[in-house]
Amino acid sequence: MRVSLVLALAATLTAAVTAQQSTFKSTTALVEVDVTVLDKQGKFVPGLQADDLVLYEDGKLQKIQQFYMVAHDPSRLGAAQATVGLSRSEAEERARRFFVFFIDEGSLSAESLMRVKKGAENFIDRQMLPGDMAGVFVNGQMNKSRMTDDKIELLGAIRSATPAIDNRQALLAPFREFPRIPSENDALRVTEGARELLDELGRRACLDNAMQCEIAGGTNAVENLIQQKARLYVRSARVLTENSIENLKYVSANLARLIGRKTIVMMTEGMFSDESRPQLQQLAAQAARGGTTIYTIDGRGLVNTMSANPDVVYASRARSEAGDTGDDGPNILTSGTGGMMVRGIDDIGRAIGMVANDTSSYYVIGYAPENAVMDGKYRTIEVKSTASGLQIRARKGYLAVNLPPQEFIRKAGYR
Question: Which structural domains are found in the chain, ordered by start?
Answer without folding.
Answer: 1-164+239-410 (3.40.50.410), 169-234 (no CATH)
